Structures are given as C-alpha cells and as structure tokens.
Amino acid sequence: MTDTLASHADRELNRGEPLIEMDEVGKSYGAIRALRGINLRVNAGEVTCVLGDNGAGKSTLIKIMSGLHPHNDGSLRVDGKDVSFASPREALAHGIATVYQDLAVVSLMEVWRNFFLGSELTAGKYPLAGLKIKKMKEIADAELRKMGIVVKDIDQPIGTLSGGQRQCVAIARAVYFGARVLILDEPTAALGVKQSGVVLKYVAAARDAGLGVVFITHNPHHAYLVGDHFVILKLGATTLDKTRSQVSLDELTRQMAGGDELTELSHELKR
Amino acid sequence: MSQTVEAAPAPAPSSEPSGRVRAGLASRLMARPEIGALVAAIIIFIFFLSLAPSFRSAESFFTVLYQASVIGIVAVGVGLLMIGGEFDLSAGVIVYTAGLSASMFCWYFGVNLWIGAILSLVFCLAIGFLNGYLVMRTGIPSFLITLGTFFVLQGANLGVTKLVTGTVSSTDVSNIDGFDSLGKIFASSFKIGSVTVWTSVLWWILFVALAAWTLQRTKVGNWIFAVGGNPDSARAVGVPVVRTKIGLFMAVSFLGWFVGMHQLFRFNTLQAGGGVGNEFLYIIAAVVGGTLLTGGFGNAVGVAIGAFIFGMTSLGIIYAGWDPNWFKAFLGVMLLLAVLVNLYVKKMSTTRKVG
C-alpha cells in the first residue's frame, strides 16, 4: 500500500523536518477576527490533526495554507521561507495540495479522466494534441490498485464509486502529482465506519511515506488513530496544542466535546 | 466488487490479464449519450419512409441533410457550451447579426465583401467574449445574460438595418466584389448524378468531427466536461475554468457567424428580423442528442443526430402532405422524451453500482 506513495514522495523529505511553520498567524475579514495567534507546525512524516467545532476557524486555517485567502497577521513559512499565497496554484507549486470533502471529483467523468484532470498527458503542446488515453488509463488503474482500490471498470463515472474511494482517488492524485504536504478537509465526515477506515489507512500510508499531513476533522476518535500532534481550535484561537504522548484519547474527546464547559453544564443539569 | 477494498488485486473475474472487468456491450452502449437519439432517428426515418413516398429518394435525403446542417453547425457549438454548463440564447439572432453587419458595411462603404466578412467575424467573436466574460465575472446565470444579448441583438438588427437601408431587409450583395469567392466557400453546391450536395453539409460534418475529437481526445475536451460537471472541483485541480467557458461562448458565436455567412451568400439578402427562435432549435438538437441540461455530459455526434432528426421531421411532415404547423408540436414531444431519457441516464451513471 505504501509503495506507490514512497515512489512518488519527494526524496528530500526528512522525517520530523518542519514543512509549514505558522507563527502567531491571524486573519480578519473586515471587523471580524476569524483566527488569531495560531502557532502550527507541519512536520514531514507526521500527521497534524486540527480539531474544532463548526465556526472554530478550521476552514480559515485551511484557506490560508492552501492559498485561497492570504493571512493578515504573523508569519507563514514553507521550508523555512516566508510566504503569502495569492492563489491555490502558488500553494500547489510549493507542493501543498488540498483535498476538499465535497469538491474532490467531477462525478459524471470517468475515473481515469478525474485522476488526470488538470494535468493531462498529451502527445504534444498544441491545443488539439491527442490525449494519451491508453497510458493514462494504465497509470490510473495501476495507482489505484496499489492503494487497494480495484475499480470494476476504469471507464466508469467516478460517481459510481463509494465516497471513501472517491476521497482516496483525490488523495492518490495529489500524491501522484508530487504533493509534499496534504491538507485533508474533513475527509471522513460524510463516510461510514468502513469507508472511513479506508481513508485513514491511506492517511497513515502518506505519513509513512514522509509526507506532512494536515488532517482536519471534528471526530477525535479518527484523529487519535493516525495523529502525531493535536490542535484544538475554538472561536479562532488555540485551546489545546499537544503531541500524542502528552494527551490521551479521553482528554481529547473531553476537550472536543466542550471540556470545562461541559463539566460545568453537567453540574447544572445534575439530577 | 467495486466497493470491496483489498490490499491485493481482487481475483480476476474475467480472462483479461489486468483483472479488470469490462462492462458488457449492452451496458456500455446504454451509457453513451447519443444512443437514445440514434434509436429515435432510426424510428423516425423508417416512419417517414413508409408514410411519405417522396421521402424515398437520394435527392430528398440530401435536402434533409442540408436542412440539418444549417441548424446542426451552430447546434454543435451550443452542445459543447451546454456540456460546459452554460446556455446561449443569443445564438439564433447572432447568425443574422453576422450576415447583416457584413452586407451592410460593405454596401454602405463600398468595400470588398472579404473585409466585411472578417469584420463581422471579429464582431461576433467579441459578442461571444462579452457573453462569456459577463457570465464569469458577475456569476449571473448565462440564461439571463444571453437573454439580454439576444434582445439587444434582435433590436439592433432591425434598428440598424432600417437606419442604413430604410427597409427591414439588407441590400443585395451579389454585385459587390468578393461575392463569388466567398460564395464558393460558404454557399456553393455540386451535383452527384441528380443529387445536389451543399457544401454546408460537408462543413457540418467537419465541425462535428472536430468537436467530437476535441471533446474525447484533447485536454480542452476534458476541461469542458469538468467545468460543466463541477466547476469548483475543476478549479481546485488547476483547470482554467474562466478561459474554458469564455472560449466555448466564442466557439458558438464563431459557428453562428459561419452560418450567417452561408445565409448571406446563399440568399444575397437577409431579413433583419430573422433567426429569432432558432436558439431553441439548437438547444433542442443538443438535448435530443443526449446533452445534459445541467452540463457535464453529452457528445458531438449526439448533437448531430439531434439536428438530423430536426431536418428529417421538418421536411418529412411536408413530404407526407401534412399541415406543417404540427412540426413544432412534434419537436416539443421529442424534447420531453429526450429530457426523460437523459434524466434516467444521469441517475444510472451517478448511483453506485452494486455487484
């Protein structure tokens, strides 16, 4: 399962080396401060889990890293250099690929067309150059096979695959085209237990291949299965920032569920 | 087995070395967008063959093809645009805008028709660009934007023609320089035995072939499907969504210009109010040919079959000696049937297959 990842992962990735560093990063939309004082480190070969309730600032954090919105406060460093992305394309050029939960694929298009969308193999540079259809089908099929997804027919519309498989195709595509940092936006939110397992296994495989993974979720159980480092956001600020050895699943679950507020509430509602 | 997730390749259920299953011939055929249109075309063809004796000749077959080509050339562009997820309601009148602007410019300034034809091409491409630019820039549905352009062009066609010529038709261009050479390109015909073949039929076949190649075999085609199927996800993987869509609007206006030139050099003079309503014929041809109204699905051959059905019925009803007014009612029924078939196809291809 890891061989495909290992063969495409950047050889210069050294485990534990910081790929993305955020120092006191903040973001305001007009008068509204969506994010403030965020310190986050994404290391090669580690999974950084970002947890938080709805409206906690998770999406804003992703948007800064993936280049959809630039930050206004603090500094963002990629490979030690200060950057501020103006577009997703710039983030991609730095090897930062984002897989969104709902817009990962075009469901009416064939699996292989989806796999190569935006990076098609053509026979030449001119606009009407033929696609290398046979080769693209072979590569897509082989890549998916390596990660354990056997599609019935590589020509079938990707909408006929299960949600977990679609998510995996999107991740596999990002890795195949040279991602060094994978940002996964709620990859398991819409999935059942079995399908979530498929995605989580692949997250672990990406980590083992040396990629830096940012795993956004509101499910602490999923996070704890693969995470090395946990950050909980609340109202735009960090409320917990611990490594795996410093925090237990119970603690993580309690913090996610509301932490002290929940304890207080349980006293109030005592019966 | 499409859902089972295994670390090793599944045991091969077929003899194919890759272990991949190919869907059966029947289900692969059913998944093609144009299959419904093809079946309908064959049925309608046999229907008119048996009912209308004058339908049974090579001459009338080529008349049908000619009729189909005049609609089909623009319909191919409209089909691509619809696969790309947009509409163009101005496609019918732009044909006349193209012809009128070329003819009146040359008549008024007394210049060679080649200059008029080229200026008219630039003008049409600019309208296509404007359509696309406004849709992409404002996010307003293309249905509304092009409805606006449609009315602007319809009014301007009449208004400007009246200002220049004093009547509601353009002046005869057959005495202006360049008429013969342009006529050869856009509106000539040749005889094979007793059969008259218009070059517009050959152009139509060429455009369909080009569109089919672009859609299935080039990266631009991949992008067209993607921007129609899911523009956000297309943008996320680096597809130039804005450029692709604007390009499609310009392709439609180019093909509109082409048919406009054909009309001008075939009839020498054009009625300023023409073309209204044709935009719907293009859309009907595309939908009957299996194009999904919501975008992301369809193909060029299907649209060509849709235009062929149009040509067959519009003439077949006359050959059969019926009241031609029934033609529109028939088109409406075809459209409804096609929409139902398309809906079914979309449902089939986006739901998970079990087994």
* CATH classification, class level of chain B: Mainly Alpha
* SS field, number of helical segments of chain B: 14
CATH topology name of chain A, in short, is Rossmann fold
Q: Tell me the strand percentage band of chain A.
A: 15-25%
Q: What composes the largest sheet of chain A?
A: 6 strands, mixed
Structural class of chain A: alpha/beta
| CATH structural architecture of chain A | 3-Layer(aba) Sandwich
What is the overall silhouette of chain A?
A: globular
Global structural class of chain B: mainly alpha
Poorly predicted runs of 5 or more residues of chain B: 1-19
CATH architecture heading of chain B: Orthogonal Bundle
Helix content class of chain B: 55-70%
Can you put this structure into words, describing what you see?
- The complex is a heterodimer of chains A (271) and B (355).
- Chain A is an alpha/beta fold.
- Chain A has a single domain (3-268), classed as Rossmann fold (3-Layer(aba) Sandwich), CATH 3.40.50.
- Chain A contains 10 helices and 10 strands.
- In chain A, the strands form 2 sheets. In chain A, strands 6-7-8-3-9-10 form a 6-stranded mixed sheet, with helices on both faces.
- Chain A is globular.
- Chain B is an all-alpha fold and 355 residues long.
- Chain B has a single domain (38-169, 177-345), classed as Orthogonal Bundle (ABC transporter involved in vitamin B12 uptake, BtuC), CATH 1.10.3470.
- Chain B is 69% helix and 2% strand.
- Chain B has helices spanning 25-30, 35-51, 58-83, 91-109, 113-138, 142-165, 179-186, 199-217, 219-229, 231-236, 241-267, 278-288, 300-319, 326-350, and strands spanning 189-192, 195-198.
- The interface between A and B is large, with 47 and 45 residues.
